[in-house]
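Input/output pair, single chain:
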Amino acid sequence: MSTTAKETETNGLVYRRVLLKISGEALMGGQNYGIDVDVAHSVAQELKAVHELGVQVAVVVGGGNIFRGVSATVMNAVVLQDALEKIAVDTRVLSAVDIPQLAESFIRRRAVRHLEKGRVVIFAAGTGNPYFTTDSAAALRALEIKADIILKATKVDGVYSADPVTNPSAERFGEITYQQVLERQLKVMDASAISLCMDNNLPIVVFNMRQPGNIRRVVSGEAGVGTRVWLGN
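Output:
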């Protein structure tokens, strides 16, 4: 049975349906290549905790940890699906290209129906078109399923004025507008994805996925977690 907006509000949640964008690089953990099984397990546990609250969860996984392209995103999606199903979370992988042996073909209504039935949905193969990144795929899929927000999982705790690893004096923003992200060329998502979100007023929260419980904190509306990218006042 699907969770109604009223039930979700009762649970103290701000967002009923979310899309998580996680990079292939993030799945590497401390490795130089491939997927760290412990990281995949950790992500799965985080998603399960949010899913059990009644939030409808969709995921777009990048492929940068193997080689960039359709095959890499599908491989990562299947690995994450396996991690979720091992902890009893019903999951479906929907692919933008036809790979019936591994995934269902993406159909918007099918994706929404899976979410309404309480399944985690993982979108694979990007948009199915060349020249578009998985950032753009995340923005597009989030709009297609009418997600309330995009959760951008990173290795840092938000958006900074510069790379905080190389510049300790970099400023972290609590919130920032899409326009400021574009003008300052901040590395949040690619320009096409940011523009798509801006045109459709779809907020983004950039947060540190390595901090346990952060996804739950975001969907609960807890202040101070990550950086909110939006239209502004």
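The chain has a mean pLDDT of 90. The two ends are 37 Å apart (CA to CA).
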